Amino acid sequence: MAENKEGQEIQEEQVTENNENLAGETVESTETDDTQAQLESQLAEAKDKYLRLYAEFENFRRRTAKEKIETIQNASEGLIKELIPVIDDFERANKSFESVTEVEPLKEGIALIFNKLQKTLAAKGLKPMESKDTDFDVELHECITQFAAGEDKKGKVIDEVEKGYFLNDKVIRYAKVVVGS
User: Which residues, in sequence order, are CB contacts of 165 under 8 Å at separation 6+?
Assistant: First the structure.
């Protein structure tokens, strides 16, 4: 019986050790499952943030593209609004041609309209280019022909066929000129 008791004790110890090993494995597998669940949760959260950020960026890109197109289309709106009164003045001048027999009042009216147009464009940054009797400059002038001239006129602008213009100190139209050779 003593052997039986010792055998039972040994079996009980083995059972206890097996139970402890199983309990340890369960704890390890539970910790592994918790860590994996946490990582999956963090991954899902990161994906959600990424998708939201990407969607927000796409909306921003579309909105700015739309605003840019609108800005380009309406860029000249202010200038056009300021030129409409000048057009009205020209229409009144055309009507006055029908009933007027004297030329002087018409010349005066056209000069007033022209000055009004020049002031409006100058306020927007348009400046006429002065070219006559200056040195020929390829950056400002377009030579349409050369004319034989004296030594003092060689390389200088003799005549201006079409006036050049600056817009905010940038050449927007080159002056077409005749150059002395």
Answer: 126, 127, 128, 129, 171, 172, 173
Residue type, 88: D
Mean pLDDT of the chain: 81
- Identify the burial level of 175 via C-beta atoms within 10 angstroms of its C-beta, where 0-12 means exposed, 13-18 middle and 19 or more buried: buried
Condensed to tens digits (0 to 9), the pLDDT of residues 64-110 reads 999 998 887 777 777 777 888 888 888 887 777 777 677 787 788 88
Distance CA 176, CA 143 (A): 6
The alpha helices in the chain, defined as continuous H runs, are 2-73, 77-99, 104-123
- Are the C-beta atoms of 144 and 161 separated by less than 8 Å? yes
Crossing angle of helices 77-99 and 104-123, rounded to 10°: 180
Q: Give Cα separations from 73 to 46, 69, 76, 77, 159 (angstroms).
A: 41, 6, 8, 8, 38
Name 167's bridge partners.
126, 170
Helix/strand/coil for 138: coil
Residue 83 · residue 120 · CB < 8 Å: yes
**Residue whose pair of structure tokens reads 């539970």 in the numeric block:** 30
